[in-house]
Every structure is written in structure tokens, then in C-alpha cells.
Design a protein that fits this description.
This protein has 289 residues and is mainly alpha-helical. It has helices at residues 2-11, 16-35, 41-65, 67-72, 80-83, 88-109, 111-130, 137-157, 163-184, 188-193, 199-203, 205-230, 233-252, 262-288. Helix 3 packs antiparallel against helix 6 (88-109) and helix 7 (111-130) packs antiparallel against helix 8 (137-157).
Length: 289
């Protein structure tokens, strides 16, 4: 159990709250739009298993790929893979099991999910290398997490031809990219000294925070476009307004000269936003259908 707890700590299992609600939104929106009914237990279960497999593999791979960098960074030097609480061999074992769970889950859903699986796995691996050569790494992470609602939509319908699926994808892309910029500000000096790439390193802290605000403005716009494409009405519109308020408050918590409340901005407020959007969407679909 101690090893298992160390593994959960390594992959930050609690951060699943960020992407899982949006995967469920893709599942619900796709099923209701395509078939006029709610997802059945089979879809819920295998979509959840696919998300667990994908996210666990992504985080384990990230820790494996970055373990040398993490050992040098004062912020990350106590991570379980660095300290030995989780060994490299164990981490690879967890990764392979997670990828196997992802493959089985996709196979249980539909053929398109299996066909698109290599694209998902590519981004799960590719993201961890991007900060070594491009400051666009935040957007690559956004695309990687944005696959969650697309995956949910594919699970529900076996198709990806509805514009709402892509609006929701873009909302998640810029939401994740925006708060990853905030997260990267705490490693600004370390990344600059070690030749790692990020928007804060490339543009400085003040401009980076401005770019993050711009990305989150796009998030609000794409959430609104999702609601319009699905005809979700005023309830979801109110949810978008609340989400915009949460994002505005998140940015009010940090400044180029004061990053002391970054954890509140990053962890707490983004978790709240994911749940809020999910709840308002659930009510909107329930009222409309």
C-alpha cells in the first residue's frame, strides 16, 4: 500500500479532476446529440477506464522522461521517482499496464476509438519532450488533454463530424495551456538556467501572464460556441459566465511580483472550474431533453 500511495503521489492522481469532467461532457453531449438519450453504464465504465489508462500512462511517462531534470529542480527533487519511493522498473510496469488498459478500453468502445489510439499515445509521449526544444509546449499539453472530450465524443458516437466536439476540444486546449503557463512561472529561473523552453522564459513573466489571460478568454469563447452549437440555452450560458468569473479570479491571484498564491490559482480554481462547467452542462442537457 505504501508503494501504491507513492505511485498515486507520483502521477498526481487527484489532478484527474481537471480532464475527466470534460471527457464525460464529450460522452454526454455526443450521445444526446446523436441518439437523443443518455450514455449507458457500458459507455460510462469504459470511457472512465480509458481516461484512467491514458492519464496514468501520461503522468508516469512524464516522470520517467523528466526524472533527470526533476532531480536538479528544488521544486521537484522530492518526487517519488527521484527519491526511489518508486523505482524506474516499477514506473515502467505501471506505464505498460496503463497503456494496456487504454487499448482494451478503446477496443470495448468502438473501431474508431482503436484507430485513433496511436494519435493519443503519440501525444502522451511527445508532450514530455517539447520543453526541451519549443516554448509551445503548453499548447501541446493543451492538445493532449483536449483529446479527453474528443475521446468521450468518439466513445459515444463512433464519429467526430459534429462542430461542438471540436469547439469543446479547443476550449480545453486553451484552458489547459493557459493554466500550464501559470504553473510554469514557478520554474522560470530554473528553466532559464538549464535551457528549457516555456512561454515565461521566452516572453518574461508579465507577458506570459498576459498570454495566459488571452488563452483563457479563448476558453470562454469556445465554451460559448459549444453551447450554441448544441442549443444548450441559458443554463449553460450561465455556466460559461460563472467559468469566466472563476478564470478572472484565478488570474487576480497571481502577478509578476507575487506568485505566492499560485497553488490556489492552479489547483483549487481549475478543479472548481471543471466541476462547475460539468454541473451546468448536466443541468442544461437535463432541462433541454
Amino acid at each position: 500500500m505504501g508503494k501504491f500511495r507513492a505511485f498515486l503521489e507520483m502521477i498526481k492522481f487527484e489532478h484527474t479532476i481537471f480532464a475527466l469532467p470534460f471527457a464525460y461532457l464529450g460522452l454526454i453531449f455526443g450521445r444526446v446529440e446523436e441518439y437523443g438519450g443518455w450514455p449507458d453504464l457500458w459507455l460510462w465504465f469504459w470511457t472512465t477506464m480509458a481516461m484512467v489508462g491514458a492519464r496514468t500512462a501520461a503522468m508516469a511517462l512524464n516522470r520517467l522522461i523528466d526524472r533527470a531534470i526533476d532531480a536538479l529542480n528544488p521544486r521537484t527533487k522530492d518526487r517519488p521517482l527521484v527519491t526511489g519511493k518508486v523505482t524506474v522498473r516499477e514506473a515502467w510496469g505501471y506505464t505498460l499496464l496503463s497503456l494496456a488498459l487504454l487499448f482494451v478500453s478503446a477496443a470495448m468502445l468502438n473501431p474508431l476509438a482503436v484507430k485513433l489510439l496511436p494519435i493519443a499515445v503519440f501525444f502522451l509521449v511527445f508532450y514530455s519532450y517539447t520543453k526541451r526544444f519549443t516554448w509551445l509546449s503548453h499548447l501541446v499539453l493543451g492538445v493532449t488533454d483536449g483529446l479527453a472530450p474528443l475521446g468521450g465524443w468518439v466513445a459515444a458516437t463512433g464519429r467526430l463530424d459534429h462542430p461542438a466536439a471540436w469547439w469543446l476540444f479547443l476550449a480545453v486546449v486553451f484552458w489547459i495551456a493557459g493554466f500550464d503557463i501559470l504553473y510554469a512561472t514557478q520554474d522560470f529561473e530554473f528553466d532559464r538556467r538549464h535551457g528549457l523552453h516555456s512561454i515565461p522564459v521566452r516572453f518574461g513573466l508579465r507577458r506570459a501572464l498576459g498570454i495566459a489571460r488571452g488563452f483563457h478568454a479563448l476558453t470562454v469563447a469556445f465554451l460559448a460556441a459549444t453551447g450554441l452549437a448544441l442549443g444548450l440555452g441559458g443554463v449553460f450560458g450561465l455556466g460559461v459566465v460563472v467559468a469566466a468569473g472563476i478564470l478572472a479570479y484565478e488570474h487576480a491571484l497571481v502577478s509578476p511580483t507575487d506568485l505566492s498564491r499560485l497553488n490556489t490559482a492552479f489547483f483549487t480554481m481549475n478543479g472548481v472550474l471543471a466541476v462547475v462547467v460539468f454541473v451546468f452542462a448536466l443541468v442544461a442537457v437535463g432541462v433541454g431533453r
